[in-house]
Design brief:
CATH architecture of the largest domain in chain A: 3-Layer(aba) Sandwich
Number of domains of chain B: 3
Distance between the termini of chain B: 42 Å
Helix content of chain A: 40-55%
Oligomer: heterodimer
Low-confidence stretches of chain B: none
CATH class of the largest domain in chain A: Alpha Beta
CATH topology of the largest domain in chain A: Glutaredoxin
Number of domains of chain A: 2
CATH topology of the largest domain in chain B: Rossmann fold
CATH class of the largest domain in chain B: Alpha Beta
Number of helices of chain B: 18
Number of strands of chain A: 4
CATH architecture of the largest domain in chain B: 3-Layer(aba) Sandwich
Distance between the termini of chain A: 41 Å
Largest interface: A-B, 20 and 21 residues
Radius of gyration of chain A: 18 Å
Radius of gyration of chain B: 25 Å
Mean pLDDT of chain B: 97
Structural class of chain A: alpha+beta
Strand order of the largest sheet of chain A: 2-1-3-4
Mean pLDDT of chain A: 91
Order of helices and strands of chain A: HHHHEHHEEEH
Number of strands of chain B: 17
Number of helices of chain A: 7
Strand content of chain B: 5-15%
Shape of chain B: globular
Helix content of chain B: 25-40%
Largest sheet of chain B: 5 strands, mixed
Chain lengths: 165, 573
């Protein structure tokens, strides 16, 4: 199963080489696991099996441990993410002010479940627990932009800012 | 370090500085309940069942991870403590598949025992079940996440003691599951099937693949001639399934019990252990004479074999080409024995009783058909045999001792000691010394290779040539020894056993198996050896007859075909 076969890989040779260069100075240093995974994800965009395998080999950590860390932290993803990341706040204040309707509408419009990525690869949709702007709820963030007091009607205008820019 | 004085439940207790409160209490005769704790292996305070009150501490403390300190005042039995322990256990039980009546570990389950000890007679929380199905992919082990309490003992043993790391906690929160990477099936990853995980599991979340039904079916089939072989280490542990002291030598009772079950012949793997010494000893001498690859490393332990195939494939050339005694037995049962008994090998069904879960995998390796048939049909662990005997109503303790059948029941003490770490080495040295020097050994006991030290070394003088040998047990120790070889240390012969203590500590042995029990079983093995009239493999008359009548000579053509094998490099992950 986990033979590292890359025949169906969508990871480019350049990215894999860059991951190799990232691992080289940390060879055998299991303590660097999280940082290396973080940087590898920044390079590749996500952490597919062959990247995790490379990290396990390089840092001399059992693959089961590597996947354990990847599947534990919500920061890590094993599927390619969209070009833009939408996060809907589901903290208490945003929730009572209707963030779940926003999430439903986004799921429907983009045809994607929370945690997933739209078919065209443009948007991924996530739920976050409080972005610390409770007075502005319900809050939606797209990449590094924060949108306050969002209504379902405002959503399409917001998304339009990011489509085919 | 200087001992410290602490107070536990009003008693003044001297404790080793830095020791967990739990151990200090134990010494003082106070039993604190535990679930995830495994001394020196898994001390992580995960289950919170061992809570105690430490004066001055803000909250109740997990006593398995709280070190003692001078003047500490501990209470272990207050209403608050009892309530908290109980609540924690109730929560652990809330998502545990509570099918105790039909569970493999029923009456030998730590969770069940603890629920009883803590007086839980009502389930206040019946929660959701973990969203995972049992993993049946491994030929040796079954993982059932629905029974897992996430104590992580299996993970610690796999990663720290065996240094395999096949499983780890995956996912998060309620979805946490102990599994291989990507939740791949266990049968598809670099698991060596040693079963040490099953040995330490407090519940039935990891257990041996149960093949008792296949053996009942064979025994009930009138066309089948069903023969059984018993591994050396099973005779000193099977008694534990019936309340005997660990290490009780129950060879004769086990033979009698197997006859009661209806086996046509009861044979002993010790016979092919003796044969292994003849073949492997000859292989060693040949490599020494002809400048072959050294050190030669033993190949009896299937967990070790799979380990080297996965993790040190470049060192496969060091392995002896000898099949394990189990597999030699199967190959001979369906050739030599079939001929002698006038049976069609097709009708012979070979069952092994092994202390081992990896033997199940080994029997299924596709190259294990030197006889033209599957050499060994079914492997049962010591635990499965115990269950079979109970099912059949065999009163084990009341049985009179019986003898094995000839010819594969004629054995020596050298075969018996294969069951303990260092035993194969000692058996080989007994024979090699006498064959090479032509002198009789004054003492047959090679103490340097006995005992539970992780890596043991010795040098033996054979007619002016010094033979450097080493022994390791437990795969973490095996790794250390292999690294020594890689770094240029000169050895001629190495014995490696997968499980801590050797086969007496195998993954198919009765639960519990811990250091103290390993020592007792090991002592039983050496007592059994000392009581044998013959103690050197080359003096086994049945082995001598086998060569004369059938095999010819060690490493001969027939041996090569039936008793030797090859290995497969495998991926690390």
């Amino acid at each position: 199963m986990s033979n590292g076969c890359a025949c169906q890989s969508q990871v480019t040779r350049e990215h894999m080489d860059e991951v190799d260069r990232l691992i080289a100075p940390c060879r055998g240093q299991s303590g660097n696991l999280i940082q290396v995974l973080h940087k590898a994800q920044n390079i590749v965009g996500y952490l597919p099996r062959e990247v995790q395998l490379k990290v396990a080999e390089g840092l001399d950590v059992p693959l089961a441990r590597v996947y354990g860390v990847v599947s534990f932290y919500s920061l890590f993803t094993t599927v390619p993410r969209g070009r833009h990341k939408i996060s809907v706040c589901a903290g208490t204040a945003c929730y009572v002010r209707g963030s779940s309707q926003l999430l439903d509408r986004l799921s429907e419009d983009l045809q994607v479940r929370p945690g997933g990525t739209s078919q065209d690869g443009e948007f991924s949709l996530d739920v976050v627990r409080c972005v610390g702007a409770c007075g502005l709820g319900p809050v939606v963030t797209v990449d590094d932009d924060v949108y306050a007091r969002v209504h379902t009607e405002k959503l399409s205008d917001i998304l339009a800012l990011y489509t085919k820019e | 370090m200087k001992p410290v004085m602490i107070t536990i439940d009003g008693l003044r207790v001297e404790a080793e500085a830095g020791a967990p409160v739990l151990e200090a209490a134990k010494k003082a005769g106070i039993k604190i309940p535990t679930l995830c704790y495994l001394k020196e292996i898994n001390e992580i305070g995960a289950c919170r069942v061992c809570l105690v009150e430490v004066q001055g501490a803000r909250a109740l403390q997990a006593s398995c991870v709280t070190p003692v300190s001078e003047g500490m005042v501990v209470r272990t039995n207050t209403p608050a403590i009892r309530q908290a322990r109980k609540l924690n256990l109730e929560l652990i039980m809330s998502n545990h598949l509570r099918e105790c009546l039909t569970c493999h570990r029923s009456t030998n389950c730590e969770l069940q025992q603890l629920a009883s000890d803590l007086g839980i007679v009502e389930l206040r929380f019946a929660g959701e079940m973990p969203p995972y199905d049992p993993d049946l992919s491994s030929p040796s082990l079954v993982r059932d996440p629905r029974k897992c309490i996430l104590c992580r003992r299996c993970v610690s043993v796999c990663e720290k003691v065996q240094q395999v790391g096949a499983i780890a906690p995956q996912e998060r929160g309620f979805n946490t599951v102990i599994a291989p990477a990507f939740l791949d099936p266990l049968g598809s990853v670099a698991c060596v099937n040693c079963g040490q995980c099953a040995l330490v599991c407090p519940t039935a979340a990891i257990h041996e693949k149960d093949q008792v039904a296949e053996v009942w079916a064979a025994l009930a089939d009138p066309r089948k001639h069903v023969v059984v072989q018993t591994a050396p280490a099973t005779r000193v542990s099977i008694g534990e399934m019936f309340g005997l002291e660990p290490g009780s030598v129950a060879t004769g009772k086990m033979v009698a019990a197997l006859r009661r079950l209806g086996f046509d012949k009861v044979f002993d793997t010790d016979f092919t252990a003796d044969l292994t010494i003849m073949e492997e000893g000859s292989e060693l001498l040949r490599r020494l004479e002809e400048g072959g690859q050294l050190p030669l490393i033993t190949s009896c332990s299937p967990g070790w074999i799979k380990f080297i195939e996965h993790f040190y494939p470049d060192m496969l050339g060091h392995l002896s080409s000898c099949k394990s005694p189990q597999q030699m037995f199967g190959a001979l049962a369906k050739t030599y024995y079939a001929q002698k008994a006038g049976l069609d090998p097709e009708d012979i069904f070979v069952v092994s009783i092994m202390p081992c879960t990896a033997k199940k995998f080994e029997a299924g390796r596709e190259e294990m058909n030197g006889s033209g048939h599957t050499d060994v049909d079914v492997v049962l662990t010591t635990r499965e045999l115990g269950r079979m005997l109970k099912e059949a109503g065999v009163d084990f303790n009341a049985l009179a001792e019986e003898e094995y059948d000839a010819p594969f029941g004629i054995t020596t003490g050298a075969g018996v000691i294969f069951g303990a770490t260092g035993g194969v080495m000692e058996a080989a040295l007994r024979t090699a010394y006498e064959l090479v020097t032509g002198n009789s050994l004054v003492s047959l006991d090679f103490q340097e290779v006995r005992g539970l030290d992780g890596v043991k070394e010795a040098s033996v003088n054979l007619n002016g040539t010094t033979l450097n040998v080493a022994v390791a047990h437990g795969l973490g120790n095996a790794r250390e020894l292999l690294e020594r070889v890689k770094s240029g240390r000169q050895y001629h012969f190495i014995e490696i056993m997968c499980c801590p203590g050797g086969c007496i500590g195998g993954g198919g042995q009765p639960i519990p198996t811990n250091r103290e029990i390993r020592e007792k079983r090991s002592a039983g093995i050496y007592r059994a050896d000392a009581s044998m009239p013959l103690r050197k493999s080359h003096e086994n008359p049945a082995v001598q007859a086998l060569y004369k009548e059938f095999l010819g000579e060690p490493l001969g053509h027939k041996s090569h075909q039936l008793l030797h094998t090859g290995y497969t490099p495998r991926d690390r992950h």
